[in-house]
Amino acid sequence: MLELNSRMVLEMADPSRFEGSVRLGVTELVALTSLAGVIGELNRLYPKVQLLPEIEGGITLYERLQRDELDLAIMPGPFWSYEYECVHLGSVVNVWMASPSLPLDPSADLSPEDLAPFPVISQPSNSALSHLYDAWFAEQNLSVKRVLTANSLGMMAQLAMLGLGISYLPGAYFAPLVASGALCRLRVRPDLPTINYYAVHKKSAINPVINTVIDIARQACDFEVAGSFLPMAPPRPG
């Protein structure tokens, strides 16, 4: 009832006069693809509402929600408890990628066994993506040889381009590197599971601005876009 009343007050208020702040946590991919759009639209509709964004791994964001250090988080899932409300914002298709210098044929249909000899470049343990994929790998009885971890998608792509291993990366975001020949997109079956992204907050939260930010995020978030902030491809030999 309190949440409904707060939302009614917000909807009846003059947007130009409404004030408040939301401590928003997002993962790196959200920051790269959608955060600027969310901030811009919020500034346009509610110029006196302040968004306080921070970028962390999904597990860290969840822990900070638990400690009431954040009001809202946009991250992959679901993996949280019943105490949290979540709204689906979109999804991301991740694909296996590798340097053309590695002995893997991008035109061939590959199995997980074909990938076994190669080190996997992945995100660290505080990543929600690693948490979700580790569970899926276990369900599929897939053995993944992690050797390198990086907390930056750009660094993961850079290490893959250098031929230091294979990696699973957002297909749309890194498509320009595939088009340029810096990376190869591998055809591996079964496909990696699609990753869903949610706006997550505690059900007990009474900040009336949270739902407004979620409504804006539902319109502004698009995670399946070609990257604008991509690592430089290494020089080609010869």
Provide a descriptive summary of the structure in words.
- This protein is an alpha/beta fold and 238 residues long.
- It has two domains: 12-90 and 195-220, Periplasmic binding protein-like II (D-Maltodextrin-Binding Protein, domain 2, 3-Layer(aba) Sandwich); 93-194, Periplasmic binding protein-like II (D-Maltodextrin-Binding Protein, domain 2, 3-Layer(aba) Sandwich), CATH 3.40.190.10.
- It is 33% helix and 25% strand.
- It has nine helices and twelve strands.
- The protein has helices spanning 2-12, 28-33, 35-45, 58-66, 112-115, 128-139, 153-161, 175-179, 209-220, and strands at residues 20-26, 49-55, 72-77, 84-92, 94-98, 109-110, 120-122, 146-149, 166-170, 184-185, 187-188, 195-202.
- A five-stranded mixed sheet has the order 2-1-3-12-4, with helices on both faces. Strands 8-7-9-5-10 form a five-stranded mixed sheet.
- Strand 7 (120-122), helix 6 (128-139) and strand 8 (146-149) form a beta-alpha-beta unit.
- Helix 3 crosses helix 9 (209-220).
- The termini are far apart.
- The model is unreliable at 1-6 (pLDDT under 50).
- Keywords: Transcription, Transcription regulation.
- InterPro entries: LysR_subst-bd (IPR005119).
- Pfam families: LysR_substrate (PF03466).
